Amino acid sequence: MSIFLTSLGLSILIQIVMFIPAYFFKTDKLTDLSYGLTFIILAFLVLVLNSITIGKVILFLMILIWGLRLALFLFKRIRKIKKDARFDKIRGSFVKFSGFWLMQGVSVWLILLPTLIYLNSEVKEIGLVSFIGFLIWMTGLLIESTADKQKFAFKNNLKNKGKWIENGLWKYSRHPNYFGEMLCWIGIYIYCLPTLSASLLNTLVGLVSPLYIIFILRFVTGVPKLEKHADTKYGRNKKYQEYKKRTSMIILWPRRKK
Asked: Which residues contact 104 (CB under 8 A, 6 or more apart)?
């Protein structure tokens, strides 16, 4: 139990350390960078404090690749756009801004729960279930990274100013990057499942991870805010209304017929 409390404390500590310059310099360049790197640091800590196996190394590499890709992409994006509109109303408030950072630390820990349990356990041999989980994770990573790349290129093309993206993966989902993100953590849970299943408690605790990320993206910080922003900006445009009506919200799916 101590390793889990230690990892939670470390996750929060990392956010506090990064929050201090972010608050005093009123910068958003550290927020997402801290988010991605905290996953890597926690996973590495638990990995090296326990017996190391091939299965654990593969899982750590999955976290490393996902975390680095996300952290570097979001850091590149924030350097381009200068600030994150999510923080416009709270950046100047110590209580509200610190609250976000503290919640980010807790969120990282919750999402990492199956990984932490797996890395802290006696791991069974890698079997079919773990292989399926790995394939789901890889599919999610490809979808998320492709969607991010497509939108970043679209937004940075001056010809697209004032337009919404509906090409590439965005033709089949209004939020394909979130779909990829969800698949990544579903895949990691399934990868860990053979080891988690040794205990009903571990199985249920680990399930918090994919359920939490799906809930947060679908109902809290992800889809609702972006949908509201898009409705405010394009809501009176009939072509956007048609795009929204015919295009799946999250899951990649062929467009509905007119």
From this structure: 15, 31, 34, 35, 38
| Cα–Cα distance measured from residue 90 to residue 117, given in angstroms and rounded to the nearest whole number | 34
One pLDDT digit (tens) per residue for the chain, 258 residues: 588 899 999 999 999 999 999 999 888 888 888 999 999 999 999 999 999 999 999 999 999 999 999 999 988 888 877 777 777 778 888 999 999 999 999 999 999 999 999 999 988 778 999 999 999 999 999 999 999 999 999 999 989 988 999 999 999 999 999 999 999 999 999 999 999 998 999 999 999 999 999 999 999 988 999 999 899 999 889 999 999 999 999 999 999 876
Distance CA 132, CA 188 (A): 10
CA dihedral 22, 23, 25, 30 (to 10 degrees): 10
Domain ranges of the chain: 1-123, 125-258
209 in helix, strand or coil?
helix
The CA-based angle 119-123-128, given to 5 degrees, is 115
**In this structure, what token pair is assigned to residue 9?**
């404390």
Radius of gyration of the chain (CA): 19
